Amino acid sequence: MDIDITHISHIIISSIIASVLSRLFWGEFPAFQITSFQLTSYWELSIYLVLGISAGFVSIIFVRMIYATDEFFIRLPIAEWIKPAIGGLLLGIIALKLPQVLGVGYGTINILH
Question: What phi and psi values does residue 5 have, to the nearest 5 degrees?
């Protein structure tokens, strides 16, 4: 897959414009609120190492699940226009139990800190 430099420049320009406009309309604040942190012992770093490796494995599983779901929908023998409706229906069913799945997730992440 070749990436054309014009595509990257469009992404950079749109990111800069989005950042400037969001700061203009909503003010200067971080997207995520974090609590203060203090390293009390260097042994804590071993826990973070295990956490980082675990997160890497979870991310691999997550990406493989996305590809498997995509492949499943490609092979599904129904009309193409019905497939987004099935995805929307499944998201709606999940949202009945977990409304946090709707939206970008910043609020949910900030609640969990």
Answer: -60, -25
- Using only the alpha carbons of the chain, give its radius of gyration: 20
CA distances from 88 to 38, 71, 93, 112 (A): 43, 17, 9, 26
Mean pLDDT of the chain: 87
User: What pTM, to 2 d.p., does this model score?
Assistant: 0.59
3-class state of residue 30 by DSSP = coil
Q: What is the pLDDT of residues 26-43, one digit of tens each?
A: 888 777 777 788 888 899
Q: What is the residue-wise DSSP string for 54-89?
A: HHHHHHHHHHHHHHHHHHHHHH--S-GGGHHHHHHH
As given in the structure block, the two tokens for residue 90 are 């499944």
- Identify which of 5, 3, 31, 10 has the alpha carbon closest to the alpha carbon of residue 106: 31
* Amino acid in the structure at residue 97: K
Whether pLDDT at 1 is above 60:
no
Q: What is the DSSP letter of 100?
A: G
